[in-house]
Design a protein that fits this description.
Layout: H1 4-26, E1 39-42, E2 49-55, E3 62-69, E4 75-79, E5 88-94, E6 101-107, E7 115-116, E8 124-127, E9 132-134, E10 138-146, E11 150-151, E12 160-161, E13 169-175, E14 195-201, H2 203-206, E15 207-208, E16 227-233, H3 239-266, H4 269-294, H5 306-335, H6 341-366, H7 372-407, H8 432-439
Parallel strand pairs: 2-15
Antiparallel strand pairs: 1-2, 2-3, 3-10, 4-5, 4-13, 5-6, 6-7, 8-10, 9-10, 11-12, 13-14, 14-16
Length: about 450
């Protein structure tokens, strides 16, 4: 959000340049003319422009021009509906070379990433002259969409049709966030839209002599013609994905390692259990959010990515880990002896933390936000060595303290430099040879009972 105002200024300035350059390029197009019928929509943020022409010599096709500044990762126009479900969506993004434009026709099925049209739909888009990167500032796609005036989405019992007699045909628009996204694939998965809204378009105005619409050529004319904005929203973020990432990083980089620190530093078993219990609750919430957003994007809806597979394994391991800790602690309270479950619990916990951190590094690229791996790396390099240093320092202090006690003449251990000053304990009452022989080897002969460590 901190770069929003700068982004808008940059986009607006480049959009004006784009209109000028694209207009000059389109005047050389043999399918364009000054008499071409067209309706034109310019988004309120001026990060998208769309011109539509419905040629009166065709009952199935239309021609269009779709433009966006180089700062945007993608733009899209939805036709035939003011909701995503059932709309035919024309999505454009830079090609892998950065010198051309990929146009992907898709169907909308609700509040999820649109699905590319199937080959049997009959819908196809042909690139026309003037398509590409203009002046290094603007991407333009001029095209002809064949069999695009009537369509049926999967599962729909009726066709959606562009009503050429409508002066207020419902449509959608969306623009992705800034970023270096490029792909030649028609099924490429993108980030959620940054700006979006609805508008209506005059299709009567757009119907007439066929040709690629001539877009506005100056700043004063860079506005909609035959189109009216109905709703506009901006600064949209995928809060579910953000919450998923934050919760998981807090759990695996913060809480779980802190639980280990609590146990190793002071042997505080109850605080350890409470901390790990809180982490378990957060992981359940974070995983639920992850499952929810997985069905939102094309890249994750099949649950077959490494991040998702590892995440499911971690989710299972955490419940096993928590159960092992509970059973071990319950047995220890009864016997005051460690159990065979303890080392399994300890090493499984270490494995879970390691897998969780690795999965975080895998997850950010999957979310198309690889730069956040630098933040994650910084946290890991700061917190983990810090906790390790605390534990090592504690152990060194303990060893030093023990040696100091042994060298100070403490009767509990070490050589006593002044044995004559030591108070002698009274001799136990003589109980006879039979009683003494029976007492030999009893634990009481070795002094007070030693407390067993609960975890190894």
């Amino acid at each position: 959000m901190w770069n929003f105002n700068v982004r808008q200024l940059v986009l607006a300035s480049f959009t004006v340049l784009s209109f000028i350059s694209s207009s000059q390029a389109q005047t050389t197009n043999d399918e364009s003319s000054n008499t071409t019928a067209a309706s034109i929509f310019v988004s309120p943020q001026q990060d998208l422009a769309f011109g539509l022409n419905i040629p009166n010599d065709s009952e199935t096709d239309f021609l269009f021009s779709l433009m966006m500044p180089v700062q945007s990762s993608w733009v899209a126009i939805g036709l035939g509906s003011n909701q995503m479900a059932g709309a035919l969506i024309l999505m454009a993004y830079p090609s892998s070379s950065g010198l051309n434009v990929t146009l992907s026709p898709r169907f909308g099925y609700g509040h999820t990433e649109p699905t590319p049209v199937s080959s049997d739909s009959g819908i196809s888009v042909k690139s026309l002259a003037g398509t590409g990167l203009l002046n290094g500032t603007t991407y333009v796609f001029n095209g002809r969409c064949s069999h695009c005036r009537s369509w049926s989405t999967k599962g729909s019992k009726t066709n959606t049709t562009l009503d050429v007699n409508s002066r207020e045909a419902p449509m959608l628009y969306a623009a992705g966030p800034t970023g270096q996204f490029r792909s030649d694939s028609l099924s490429a998965s993108v980030k959620i839209h940054w700006n979006y809204g609805t508008f209506s378009m005059d299709l009567v105005r757009a119907t007439g002599p066929g040709g690629v619409p001539v877009m506005p050529s100056t700043k004063d004319t860079a506005q909609s013609q035959g189109a009216v904005v109905r709703a506009a929203k901006e600064d949209k973020r995928d809060t579910t994905a953000i919450a998923h990432a934050v919760i998981m990083v807090i759990s695996f980089v913060g809480l779980y390692p802190f639980g280990v620190l609590v146990l190793r530093l002071g042997g505080w078993v109850r605080w350890h259990a409470a901390n790990q219990g809180l982490a378990l609750v957060l992981v359940i919430i974070g995983s639920s959010l992850g499952f929810k957003i997985s069905g939102t994007y094309l890249r994750t809806k099949n649950f077959n990515t490494a991040h998702q597979v590892i995440g499911i394994l971690i989710f299972i391991f955490i419940f096993v880990q928590f159960t092992l800790g509970f059973l071990h602690h319950r047995t220890f309270k009864k016997t005051q002896q460690t159990t065979k479950l303890a080392p399994v619990h300890v090493w499984l916990g270490r494995l879970i933390i390691l897998m969780g951190v690795i999965n975080g590094f895998i997850g950010f690229p999957l979310a198309l936000s690889p730069d956040y791996n630098y933040v994650l790396a910084g946290l890991v390099l700061f917190i983990f060595p810090g906790f390790a240093l605390i534990i090592v320092t504690k152990n060194l202090i303990q060893k030093y303290w023990k040696k100091s006690k042994e060298g100070s003449g403490d009767p509990a251990g070490g050589y006593n430099m002044e044995p004559w000053k030591q108070t002698q304990a009274p001799n136990p009452t003589y109980a006879g040879p039979d009683q003494q022989s029976r007492d030999i080897g009893r634990p009481a002969d070795l002094g007070a009972q030693q407390n067993a460590r609960e975890y190894v």
